[in-house]
Design brief:
Elements lengths: L2 H17 L3 H8 L4 E3 L12 E3 L10 E9 L2 E8 L2 E8 L4 E6 L7 E6 L6 E6 L7 E4 L4 E4 L9 E11 L2 E12 L2 E12 L5 E5 L5
């Protein structure tokens, strides 16, 4: 069963949790965990044995929750709890999770991935004004600001959908350019290197 199938099953589990009306019903559902087989997708991240994909119990308090990303066998959930933006790193193999408070900026895009050099899970928070990008590392358990390079200066919008591949997080974005004196918005791929913590933009062909 490939990663996207596992992702769909977990999304169904999340939807099921929030349809429940009482704690008693919730506990009954959680006492019957779904068993799925996580098969290695080529990077050795996922175990081949059967594991329980029962979600962390405190996620019952989350709302507007989604799967932000999957990297090196870790899932990252994003949502709200008690009025705060929260992210959760979850390792289904060892049934451990860590919750992180995300900076509360308007229209912030958040990305998730694992640094291939240090195996350190990271979050990157990109505010709408792009002025103060922050990075969270699990090893430090803290957010810190980073200096952004020129690749981020022309970006005008970033989609929430992301993918983490080969040590980088990728988003579909739009940047501003000038053609014959006119402002033109172009489709680009924005990447964030999880090791160097630098942004790069890749322009897409006009035919895409």
């Amino acid at each position: 069963m490939r990663v996207e199938v596992v992702r769909k099953k977990i999304e169904e589990e999340i939807e099921g949790i929030y349809r429940l009306d009482t704690m008693r019903t919730l506990e009954t559902k959680r006492s019957q965990p779904k068993i799925l087989s996580l098969v290695d997708d080529g990077d050795g991240s996922f175990p081949e044995n059967d594991v329980s994909l029962t979600l962390p119990i405190y996620m019952k308090d989350f709302y507007d929750v989604c799967i932000l990303g999957i990297s090196h066998g870790l899932f990252c959930f994003y949502g709200y709890m008690k009025g705060m933006r929260m992210a959760v790193f979850w390792n289904p193999s060892i049934k451990k999770s860590v919750d992180i408070v995300v900076p509360d900026e308007i229209r912030t895009v958040v990305g998730f991935g694992v640094c291939p050099r240090t195996s350190d899970p990271k979050l990157v928070s990109i505010p709408d004004n792009l002025w103060q990008v922050e990075v969270f590392t699990l090893s430090s358990e803290a957010w810190r600001s980073i200096t952004t390079n020129s690749s981020l200066k022309q970006i005008r919008s970033i989609t929430w959908n992301q993918v983490a591949i080969d040590g980088c997080i990728y988003w579909h974005a739009h940047d501003l350019d000038f053609v014959n004196g006119r402002r033109v918005y172009q489709d680009v791929i924005l990447s964030f290197d999880l090791t160097s913590e630098e942004f790069i933009t890749i322009k897409l062909p006009d035919c895409v």
